[in-house]
Amino acid sequence: MKFKYIEKNPEVCGGKPVFKGTRIPVYIVLDLLSAGESVENILKNYPILKKEAVFEALRLASELYKNERGAN
Questions:
Q1: pTM of the model
Q2: Rounded-to-integer distance, Cα 55 and Cα 37, Å
Q3: Which pLDDT tens digit goes with each residue over 9-43?
Q4: Which residues lie closer than 8 Å to 3 by C-beta, 6 or more apart?
């Protein structure tokens, strides 16, 4: 998987996926989205992020789920 806005680095947040150049874990944004938070409000609260990065987080979640055993 190649991502423009997301990286995994064992030295940052214990190797969990974060948005490049930040220490913002991807799961934070995914949790906000799943709680009904709008992309606009997320971007307002995390102005360092771009809209494309938020959508890439969704793509990462989708890719990880597709690769899970029994996710068909």
A1: 0.87
A2: 13
A3: 999 999 999 999 999 999 999 999 999 999 999 99
A4: 56, 59, 60
The ranges assigned to domains in the chain are 6-66
Cβ neighbour number for residue 19 with a 10 Å cutoff: 23
Nearby residues of 24 by Cβ (< 8 Å), 6 or more positions away = 18, 46, 48, 49
Q: What is d(CA 67, CA 52) in angstroms, rounded to the nearest whole number? A: 22
How far, rounded to the nearest angstrom, does the alpha carbon of residue 42 sit from its chain's CA centroid? Answer: 12
Cα 31 → chain centroid: 9
CA–CA separation, 59 and 65 (whole Å) = 10
Tokens in use for 5?
């806005």
Specify the CATH architecture of the domain 6-66.
Orthogonal Bundle (1.10)
